[in-house]
Amino acid sequence: MSWTTFYKVGEDVAGSSCYLICMSAPAVKSTDLYVRARLSLGNVFDNQGKEFIIAFMENNPNDENLDLFITTFSNDNVSVTVNSLGYHGNGFINKQFHVSRGSTTLVSVDIELRMEGSSLSPKGIVVQANEEIIVYGVNRQHYTSDAFLGLPTDVLGQEYYTVTFLPTTPKSYAQYAQLLVVSAFNDTQVQITFPESDDFSHVTFDGIEYHGGDTLNITMDRCDALQLQAEGYFDLTGAYIKSDKPVALFSGNIRAVVGVSSSSDHLVEQLISTDRWGKRFVIVPIPAREIGDYFKVVANTDATGIDIKCINNASIITSERIVLAKAGSYELVEMDPKSYCYIVANNSVLIVQIVKSDQNDDHDPALILIPPLEQYAAEYMFTTPRRTDGSYENFFLFVVKEEDKDGLRIDGVPFPSTIEYVSIPDTSLVAGYIAIGDGFHRFNHISPISVFGGFMYGRYAFETYGMPVGLRMAEINKPCSMTADEIGDGRDNDCDGLIDEELCTDVNAGQDDDGDGKVDEDCAMAWLDDWDEWSTWTECIQTRNRTCKVRSIGESYCPGPNNESMSCGNVETGIPREETTEGLKTLRVDRKNTSKYRRSLSSAPDDRKSSAVRNPTVTDAHDVLMWSMFGEQQQQQQQQTRERRVQSLVVQ
Questions:
Q1: Is the dihedral angle over the CA atoms 472, 473, 475, 481 positive or is it negative?
Q2: Segment 243-281, tens digit of pLDDT
Q3: Is 298 strand, coil or helix?
Q4: Distance (Å, rounded) from C-alpha 311 to C-alpha 317?
Q5: Domains of the chain by residue range
Q6: pTM
Q7: Helices (DSSP H) in 416-574: which residue ranges?
Q8: pLDDT for the residue 391
Q9: Distance from C-alpha of 311 to C-alpha of 55, rounded to nearest angstrom
């Protein structure tokens, strides 16, 4: 099988289009999971990407720098550039660095790049990499902060609705609802139609007032950022953004008091376009809460009906059906403390969770985008952000099928047995949370077809953040057409409402994983496992082993052999161990130049061959062979030893 893949990679600063990259893939064996995985990675729509364009909304006060966190799933040393391409003031940023799996780079962004008021400014920040990366931002000030998950340019859309909070508690500082549009391309035509709602009054931009139902038309170039604020105690939820090219959308509040308490915080999320909204959601309560929280649901279609069923201490609570009459209309729903809620809509909707203010338990507000069940993934990576003067208390909230909960892993270790799992009404799902420490974390399931939802929440005295740790970004809200299956392509190839739901490996062949009566369709990408360290060489015949650290179920797969051996010739055992500590030097020999020698390989899924000429005390390297050489007086003795070893190898 072969195919051609097309990517939309963006536009340069001058505006020249750079839309397509073509890759023709040769046929590969069904058992060659490594090759198939590598060829499929570029197709997946999710929060990972090679280019991001983001900006930061106004926060108050304005005296702390902004934070960008960047990490990657790639084992390669990924080159990353962060650049404010269109802005050349004192806050101009142009940084280059490398990042690899298990590491995170924090980029500090000058406060001059934070937006102010209703304005248009070239303050968009472009993050580019040669491999896929993960980006999230923290807009923090002392006692007011929130975070957002960055979305790459290949999943940006052309239609959005905003979601903000209606502030009702008077304060001396501004709590304005605000939206922020960032253009990814030059000459982008953007239309913003303001909500016809009693909660909205007007927005003033460039000296013109826009009221409910009015439309603002504007042309934006790459890296232009347009921020609009509803001054006063008003709500911008339901503003409709439409563009002729993809744009990024952020929305929230400068600050907001949420509920009856007096503490406030910045609110922000990067929102997903309407073509990626869903119909089924689970909301997990914020841990250790005594006052509950809110969630807000926004409709994409007229006459949208929403059913809500919650469980609280084994008691089932069913709400009356909510009907949103028009696209862009919304409802704010208050959750009882410790309630886990299942939400189902007949049309696609957008849902955010809004954490209430509470000075008594150190909870400030936060805005958290809730991904639909259809956009759950099987693996996430995340690094906890820092607060202005220390660490947060961090929690990972999750939703997973009950039958899959034992396969959840954090940093390669099963979830704690002390977790209290709560069954979600009318589903086969359970939910819960765990406290996690500072730093880099990987959350995954041992099966690539066992997906789960994940959210991060962090708190400290009057500082809070919340956001999803990741999500798929499939276009699930568009008419579905049957497509050819590509391994792990992140698409619903068979139009059954599920994405990559079959594990199509040799061991799992013939299994109907999704129960639809079909087998090996809409295939997920099998995990690639990692080798443990080589054991030490034994004596003649020398052998050593390594173990495949299994991440998947059904079978494991690590490229290469799990053991190797070599003869060191009769009774020759090489240079005595005590001699290897003096005058040690190394000579590197490329594996391809010694390929006429063959290892004895067992359990080797590939047919790579190479020499195994080694000293028993020398550490193995993947790409080079290490030969020990000693001081001037011992070189002749070692050369004779090497020759005897070479003679003992089998020549192809």
A1: negative
A2: 999 999 999 999 999 987 778 899 999 999 999 999 999
A3: strand
A4: 6
A5: 531-648
A6: 0.76
A7: none
A8: 82
A9: 38
